[in-house]
Amino acid sequence: MGIFINKDIKVLVQGITGHEGRFHTRMMLEYGTKIMAGVTPMKRGETVEGIPVFDTVKEALHKFAIDASILFVPANHATEAILEACDAGIKLIVCITEGIPVHDTIKVRAYLQKKGVMLIGPNTPGITVPGECKIGIMPGYIFNKGDVGVVSMSGTLTYEAVWQLTNEGIGQSACIGIGGDPITGLTFIDALRMLEEDIETKAVLMIGEIGGTAEEEAADFIKTMSKPVFAYIAGMSAPQERRMGHAGAIISSGHGTAMEKIERLKDAGVTVIMNPTRIGKSISEMMRKG
Fold first, then answer.
1. Do the beta carbons of residue 144 and residue 130 sit within 8 Å?
2. How many structural domains are present in the chain?
3. Concatenated DSSP letters for 72-110?
4. Residue where one domain finishes, among candidates 120, 146, 178
5. How confident is the model at residue 248 (pLDDT cuts 50, 70, 90)?
6. Does one domain contain both 163 and 111?
7. Is 259 exposed, middle or buried (0-12, 13-18, 19+ CB in 10 A)?
């Protein structure tokens, strides 16, 4: 399916009247994202940055055509908000919220899959297609339109890597944050498949981290890809049995280590970058060599 958002996608913001919702609504609008409406219970009739607010998603959809929803909803209400958007007929849901219980995410993901709804997150910085649209919290100024697709578990490492690429004169075709929780909707494999099918993308940067097996599973898929893949794995010096940053970033019983992931990726033909300060320069040097 390739990359599925562009300048024409119409977006709803759930939790628009909160501090984060207001701020990032303004940032998305400034980037050019078409935000049509917002939803906060018992706030119908208000406006945020000129965007009308409704009590429910269904009310907003009666007034506007909506393609995607982004959630700035506290963890104790986020599951309900995701299901509300799904049942109203929205087919792409971006969940910024961190701290949703894993068993809730498992149930929600299964339900959304049955309904044919794509979930990005939870605990994601969102998705950006440079020069077109951003649905999320990524800083817009770091991006430059180009042909390197970025897929990552980490928000801040994503921003750092994209900024390095931009400073090296390498633009990005799309940047997808799959989220840092142990269970997410969109996976590395899903995002890699999209970038493989996207005609604008010529190479891919994958940013992973310790814990779980997502990178190892991605390595098996990368073997089938026609485009060059670069990777950086965070957490090389992390101790075992201690969570580092993200909920999913924990080495358990010796599994999920950075070196295990690096070896699997190298075996799949991935160029693994070992120093995070050289992500941009390393990719620039290797792309110049052809």
1. yes
2. 2
3. ---HHHHHHHHHHHHHHT-SEEEE------HHHHHHHHH
4. 120
5. very low
6. no
7. exposed
pTM, whole model, 2 decimals? 0.92
pLDDT, mean of residues 124-148: 97
Select the more confidently predicted residue: 53 or 260: 53
Q: Tell me the CATH number at 264.
A: 3.40.50.261
The CATH code of the domain that includes 57 is 3.40.50.720
Q: Are residues 81 and 185 in the same domain?
A: no
In a domain, 131, yes or no: no
Catalytic status, residue 77: no
Burial (Cβ within 10 Å: 0-12, 13-18, ≥19) of residue 62:
exposed
Residues 52 and 182 in one domain: no
Q: Is residue 76 domain-resident? A: yes
- 266 membership: H or E segment, kind and range: helix 258-267
Range of the domain at 282: 138-289
CB atoms within 10 A of CB 7: 11
| CA separation for the pair 82, 124 (Å, rounded) | 14
Same domain for 165 and 63? no
Query: In angstroms, what is the C-alpha Rg of the chain?
Result: 19
How are strands ordered across the β-sheet holding 172-177? 133-136, 126-129, 172-177, 145-152, 203-209, 229-234, 271-272
> Which residues share a beta bridge with 37?
12
User: Tokens 């700035």 belong to which residue?
Assistant: 72
- Catalytic residue (choose from 19, 24, 246, 255): 246
Q: Which pLDDT belongs to residue 250? A: 47
Q: What gap in Å lies between CA 162 and CA 142, rounded to an integer?
A: 7
d(CA 159, CA 151): 11
- Which of 115-129, 200-214, 242-256 shows the highest mean pLDDT? 115-129
